């Protein structure tokens, strides 16, 4: 259950976990710090809160990159604090969190991970109380963290956190660094495959030196360029299938991604 800090720039940290290959973040200013995602339940959130306190005793606020449980359900142990998110995140949590809770409890029971299932059952969701639409700047004291909605991609309410003084970008699940880049979890009914490359372009315009994904180790801008091409290929394959010019099997064979990833992308709305 323990994680591992990676200092990606002075006072800017990614924390890696074996569970779901999750990556969360911490940006430390001179007066305040910002926690980027809080893990998936109250026990995981308590672990993260203690880990943050090993690095800094400054007051914290939290930002959610999106509403999915593994990023946003560990906030209880950080309270009281400001919780930032894109405006769409609040409605998504309010609408779907209880259904998601039942789904993930069943998932972890099936996996034989009763402790995690029980922790999810005991978790109280914390809905964000500081919302932004396009952009918000958080003054951390001597350092600004910029919250941005770069467009639709993994969800319709993705938020990324740019730390311009060190060119670090926390991208949430807009960027994943699974074995082949995207995973089957990257694409769901919440995702917008067609809009995703433009969203990548907006991230690249920030000229990040380090991009911290929502899952996997930190990457660079070249990683985004490679997978922007991959997204364009997936969009073309989906369009060709829609026109009846290719079969699902042929699309899977032509894709640079594994079958499960390609099928998940082709199944997006
Ligand atoms: Zn997600």
TrEMBL record:
InterPro entries: Metallo-B-lactamas, NDM-1-like, RibonucZ/Hydroxyglut_hydro
A GO term, aspect molecular function: nucleic acid binding
Metallo-beta-lactamase domain residues: 21-215
Pfam families per the UniProt record, alphabetical: Lactamase_B
CDD domains per record: metallo-hydrolase-like_MBL-fold (cd16282)
SMART domains reported in the protein's UniProt record: Lactamase_B
GO biological process: regulation of DNA-templated transcription
Name by which UniProt lists this protein: MBL fold metallo-hydrolase
Organism: Amycolatopsis iheyensis
